[in-house]
Design brief:
With about 650 residues, the protein is mainly α. It contains 26 helices and two strands. α3 packs antiparallel against α4 and α5 (about 150-170) runs antiparallel to α6 (about 175-210).
Length: about 650
């Protein structure tokens, strides 16, 4: 095993160290007027993920010298210790690094570093700068752990970690109750999905005795695991994915996550948390591939989610909310690719989406920063002349996301459409809907671009009224814009003459699962160049048609009154009904019954006999619990030591 395998533990630990150091600095500087030195905090925050990126590069090159299995997949692994044992199954705390890990971690750490750099300028004047940077570093630690874990247990640690960090970051400006509500909503919705993850993992360890990815996939390919048991486990795991990756029915938290600072939106939506579900399904490709009915569910859910996000994006007035629903829709495209067995294409769209969506979110952050935290597109317009650099960056991101050649989104989105139309009757039907969704994407993204940058300014502004774009923000935007333009070329193999380079690179890891999935779905996976050209032309015409119509529609003079600053940006009418449909269903199905039960319980508690009995029992239990507490540290330590001795004594006699 190459020496690089011994470096795996450092990749997540470096951001964790940055989080700890900046956390201490935040606490130490909490009583000073300006807080800790921003230069030191910023350096530590950026250096930690940057060094992790370098280590990922080292490990990626080391894979070329690592031993390969029968499928041509090379892997670096590091087992740190046996964490605990479930029956005869030891659970190792270990890491595994293969080509899929390399692809994921390269953009997680690379784009994550750029978002940290951007945050130095964006959050420079914020009182909680050090705390914010500590949270960002902690988020990076959790996401790297999620990707680097060698099995479901370590992945679940990172899975929960990004959930915690999203709660901390979405509610970062905790003086605002609406932001706190959004943070709690994200936390609760993800916990619902996480229950599915846990139940699915429990079924797998019960059925095959493995929690590591290699063991689970080998059990499936070897025929030891399958049938309804595997299908149930995969469905439950996919429920977890609907939470993290904001799919129907657990998608309502993601648009509300815009409450956090804009760098948080870019980090969560572009390169890290929301792609976790796509990664998990691809990592367990053989397991999901052996369950065609589950793949059909994933296909339909992804399709419905893509349409829902696209339609909702048409009615948003908040620039970040429009991009949020765009993320929901793009995640639906990724799961459509998963549902037709095109795992590599799904990961490729994850890869390209990370660049152009980070570009768009951070570009919107530059607009918001320049306009003094104005987010309502109805109060923008004409900014192309006032903010030319931001206009160019956003234009590149727009070109990429609507799928115009030759930028990144053209390659990955058209590959998804091609695989849908090359499949069975269900995937072709979904492909038609996906083309319609691509049309909507071009319309709502062009609407956002035009309302923000083109036409006449709807609020008079002078260049002197705009906040200057800090250098750190400009550097990050420029690099991400370049990535949005060229990242798609990786599929064509710019590093060699081989076509479909990206696919060949991941073939050893994802090829077995893809083959099994397409066999079970009865999909012919022979290359069809005619279909590829037809889909490319159709996708391009769709983007041009939608973009041109929207450009002409929203460049016309607007007759509606310009809302006052701070006006509610929530859509009304059909747009509001569509946007908040799932929230209202949850209110009727869950919130309202709970409130009714609470009212009934309150009424029972006020009865002459029931109320005093309940309150007396509660007071007795509370007083009894309080009487066991000790306010002195010496007493607490003595009782703790006595408890440890008692536990050890029980274990000793039990083992004896």
């Amino acid at each position: 095993m190459p020496a690089a395998a011994h470096l795996l533990w450092l990749i997540p630990v470096l951001p964790l160290l940055g989080a700890v150091l900046n956390g201490f600095l935040a606490l130490a500087g909490s009583r000073t007027a300006d807080g800790p030195n921003r230069g030191i905090v910023g350096f530590l925050a950026v250096a930690a993920p940057a060094l992790s990126f370098v280590l990922v590069l080292i490990c990626a090159f080391a894979l070329e010298h690592a031993p390969k299995d029968a499928h041509g997949a090379a892997m670096l692994s590091q087992s740190l210790w046996t964490w605990f044992q479930v029956g005869d199954v030891p659970v190792q705390l270990g890491f595994a690094f293969d080509r899929l890990t390399a692809v994921m971690l390269l953009f997680v750490t690379g784009i994550g570093t750029l978002i940290h750099l951007y945050s130095i300028g964006y959050m420079a004047q914020d009182r909680g700068f050090a705390r914010f940077m500590a949270y960002l570093n902690l988020f990076m630690f959790a996401m790297i752990t999620l990707v680097l874990g060698d099995g479901l247990v370590v992945t679940f640690l990172g899975w929960e970690g990004v959930g915690l960090c999203s709660y901390l970051l979405i509610g970062f400006w905790h003086q605002n109750d609406d932001y706190n509500d959004a943070a709690r909503k994200a936390f609760v919705m993800n916990r619902i999905g996480d229950l599915g993850f846990l139940l699915g993992a429990f079924i797998l360890v019960w059925a095959c005795g493995h929690l590591d990815y290699v063991g689970i996939n080998q059990a499936v390919l070897g025929g030891q695991l399958g049938g309804s048991t595997l299908a149930a486990a995969c469905l439950l795991l996919f429920l977890g994915c609907t939470g993290k990756s904001a799919q129907i029915p657990l998608l309502t938290w993601l648009p509300d996550a815009m409450a956090g600072p804009t760098p948080v939106s870019a980090l969560i939506h572009a390169a890290t948390m929301v792609t976790s579900g796509v990664y998990l399904v691809a990592r367990l490709g053989p397991a999901f591939g052996a369950c065609p009915d589950v793949l059909n569910v994933i296909l339909v859910v992804g399709c419905l989610t893509a349409v829902f996000g696209a339609v909702a994006g048409l009615f948003q007035h908040d620039i970040k909310k429009a991009l949020a629903y765009s993320t929901v829709s793009q995640l639906g495209f990724m799961f459509m690719a998963i549902g037709c067995g095109a795992y590599t294409v799904a990961i490729f769209h994850v890869f390209t989406h990370a660049f152009f969506k980070a570009t768009l979110f951070l570009g919107s952050g530059a607009v918001i920063h320049g306009l003094g935290h104005e987010q309502d597109m109805r109060r923008m317009g004409g900014l192309a002349k006032l903010m030319p650099f931001t206009w160019i960056v956003m234009f590149i991101g727009w070109w990429a996301i609507i799928g115009l050649p030759p930028f990144a989104g053209f390659w990955s989105k058209d590959l998804i459409l091609e695989n849908l139309f090359a499949g069975n009757a269900l995937t072709m039907t979904v492909g038609v809907v996906a083309v319609f969704t691509a049309l909507l994407t071009a319309i709502y993204m062009t609407r956002m671009l035009v309302l923000t940058f083109k036409g006449q300014p709807r609020v008079e502004r002078h260049r002197g009224d705009l906040h200057a774009l800090p250098l750190s923000m400009g550097i990050s935007l420029a690099i991400l814009a370049i990535g949005s333009a060229v990242a798609g070329c990786l599929w064509m193999g710019i590093f060699g003459e081989q076509t479909a380079w990206f696919q060949h690179y991941l073939a050893g890891v994802l090829g077995g699962g893809e083959h099994l999935a397409r066999v079970r779905l009865h999909i012919d996976h022979e290359e069809n160049h005619t279909l590829a050209y037809v889909v490319a032309i159709m996708g391009t015409l769709t983007a041009v048609t939608g973009g041109l119509w929207a450009w002409l529609r929203w460049t016309r003079p607007q007759t509606a009154a310009v809302p006052a600053h701070g006006t509610d940006t929530a859509p009304t009418g059909f747009g509001g009904a569509w946007t908040y449909a799932f929230d209202r269903v949850y209110d009727l199905a869950i919130v309202l019954p709970v409130r009714l039960i609470s009212l009934v319980s309150y009424g029972l508690a006020s009865l002459p006999l029931v109320g005093p009995a309940a309150s007396g029992t509660a007071r007795f239990l509370a007083d009894g619990y309080v009487s066991l507490q000790r306010s002195r540290l010496r007493s607490q330590l003595t009782l703790s030591l006595a408890g440890v001795v008692a536990i050890l004594a029980v274990l000793f006699f039990h083992l004896k």
